[in-house]
Amino acid sequence: MGFEILLQLTVTGLAWGSVYACIALGFVLIFKSTDIFNFAQPELMMLGAYMAFALITLFKLPFIVGFIFALVMMAAIAALLEMMVVRPMVGEPVLSVIMVTLGLANVLRGLTGLVWGYEEQQFPSPFPDDPIMLFGAAINQAEIYTIVATAMLLTIFFLFFKYSSSGISMRATAEDAKTAFLMGINVKQVFTASWAIAALVATIAGVFLASFTFLEPIMGHTGLKALPAMILGGLDSVVGAIIGGLIIGVVENLAGFYLEDYLGSGINDIAAYVIVLIVMMVRPYGLFGTKEIERV
Amino acid sequence: MAVTRFCIRSYPQDLKVFPSPAARISLVWLLLFLLGLPFFSGKYITFVAAVCGVSVISALGLNILTGYTGLISLGHAAFMGIGAYTAAALANKAGFPFLAALPLAGLLAAATGAVVGIPTLRLRGLYLVVTTLAFEFIVEHIIYHWESMTQSDRGISLPTPDLFGYTLDTYESFYYVVLVLAVATALFTKNLAMSRTGRALVAIRDRDIAAEIIGVHLAKYKILAFVVSSFIAGIAGALYAYLLGLISPDHFTFNQSVLYIAMIIVGGMGTVMGSIIGAVFMVLLPEVINAISSPIASAYPILSPRIGAVSVIVYGLVIILFLLFEPNGLYGIWIRIKRYWKPWPFTY
């Protein structure tokens, strides 16, 4: 009995963790290439899910077509936002940048509420409803698909950054934008591309999250938990973001079940934040982040 | 005709709290206006003015931490919540009078501020931002789930405050309490900013390593900033609780923290006047949107559930547009206008 529950919780945790990892990956991508901390990332996830929802239910597109259209549209929207709102902020103080993206988050959340209302909606999940049995544990299929798809996605990104020339130019910009510019890399294009890619990943995360939960504008709050995930891994580490996301997903699910009797209900909602507080006290640059060395 | 103009001629003059006679005169007029406000406005406007006052106090507190010291905190509403719930618990459960509950609320918030401040000494920039964010969510969670103390989302009510034998049972009477405290906080902040301590804080903001080299004790001043800021936030929270009479976890959420940051940015970071203008502006903004949209909503009832969304959008847009086009905030605009008119009628 104990083992089945543990397995079930772990798989659910990994599925949630994959979602966090995807969002955190978007954070890291944008942060690395543009030095901008994008608080609107969870809202991009929410908007992506709504976009897919609208395309699939309103225009009666098949799931996969609607999904792809949503990806394309979200990438375009994010690229536009980058050019209009965020680019003038490059190089501004941290707080201004954070506030611009927080303002952006508000605008996106308001627009979503304006268009689709604030009620919970059932997302047309493409995955079969009946759970599969694995070593005696009943496991939601959508969760398995989420984990597998995220793993594939991350592999693709890994290969993209490692071997493709646009991936390499993005890494170069992340390393040092000025030098990359001098080497003939189109830095502006890289900035826009990093936002577009972040929106793509966010949309994928949003669609998966909506598949095993509901669709509601409050989704952004769930997405905000990707922040501790990313901080846990270290701000500028892609691997760290993924591991941080998975750790937080698993821990909050386990804590929600095993610690609920001791610490009260809803402990899973803040487990992520408790973890990040503890880790920050021990390792101020996260698990994999590079320590900044300051020159005076 | 000789035009006598005021200009700053010496350093001691430059260091005065109110540099020019004109500034002093206009402040007196402003104070007179604020004192008279309840007499010529309705109950609701007095209430909104009191909310403005509470927000001004809170924004000034955040300004010390974020505006002067440069430590970004997304947990300001949590400190306010701690103050508010301390006051509520003391007044409701232990029967403490207003005059005792208020400072105790501030002290508990300050103690929490010190505890939060210590681990954040090693954190920089975004790591600090997310840690304060974590603190905010944890406090929010505790407020929501510690039912026996806070009564969760049913809210906890406060008795009518008493002050020196007077019962402050109207918005008008409480408005004056808020006004006095807001003016006191503003004067305190202004004096702090111009003192040795204030200069140390600004030095930390501008370059902490350089500040350390010239002899600023980083740990001491950073914790000091946290303590002072959270003390003020706690007081503001307690005042807010007494003003509303009934508080619930919704009053101290992450979005509220964002709102306070927005206040000091829209007003102008690191200036006392900026925090005041920003707080008033951000409190009045939803009121104005409401005033415009409620006739529309009553005319077209279909739209009414969506009006809230418009308010969220406008609020977000205000923040974005200010940062893109007027990073110095409303106070910056005021300074520019003043400069433009200074040499009038001669352009140079």
Describe this entry's structure for a reader.
- The complex is a heterodimer of chains A (296) and B (348).
- With 296 residues, chain A is mainly alpha-helical.
- Chain A has one domain (2-128, 136-217).
- Chain A has 13 helices and 2 strands, in the order H-H-H-H-E-E-H-H-H-H-H-H-H-H-H.
- In chain A, a hairpin with a 2-residue loop joins strand 1 and strand 2.
- Chain A is globular and about 60 Å long.
- In chain A, 52% of the residues are buried.
- By secondary structure, chain B is an all-alpha fold.
- Helix content of chain B is 74%, strand content 2%.
- Chain B has a two-stranded antiparallel sheet.
- Chain B has a single domain, classed as ABC transporter involved in vitamin B12 uptake, BtuC, CATH 1.10.3470.
- At the A-B interface, helix 4, helix 10 and helix 13 of A face helix 6, helix 10, helix 12 and helix 14 of B.
> What's the number of structural domains of chain B?
1
Give the number of domains of chain A.
1
Biggest sheet layout of chain A: 2 strands, antiparallel
What is the CA-CA span between the terminal residues of chain B? 19 Å
Describe the structure using short key phrases:
heterodimer; A: 296 residues; mainly alpha; 13 helices; B: mainly alpha; two-stranded antiparallel sheet; 2% strand; globular
Short description:
Chain A is an all-alpha fold and 296 residues long.
